[in-house]
Fold this protein.
Amino acid sequence: MKISYREANEKDIPVIHRFIKELAKYEKLEHEVVASRESLRESLFGDRSYAEVVLAEVNGKEAGFVLFFHNYSTFLARPGIYIEDLYVRPEYRGKGLGKGLLRHIASLALERDCGRVEWWVLNWNPARKFYDSLGATAMNEWVVYRLTGDKLAELASGE
């Protein structure tokens, strides 16, 4: 079994879109996916790229991906990497692809002088044990807040 990792390109949009939908189904969040191939093309490969994708391949076949972008820590005064999605197709789990994708991101973080790598995990996700085994720390004292839709528009308009 030959495992490789590579930066995604515009030709990979159908694969990235499929992986996002598969991940959403696994997370029981299919109803929240509004991303289209065109919106992915624009946000990942358009005039201003907002995120990057690395694909994991097994024997030349796409098996998983990680989508990430830079954030910033004022406490460290350094950039970081935030992993938005990490997904490995079920038939490839347990073969080291998830760890390989995280290792790839860790290497990029060091190359780019990042102070940390962060991600969120649903509290029921069995991958938490895997992340714990890597030495990752759950940030249980932090609460995530989110503004979307009408509430985001209301705040922006000053209403």
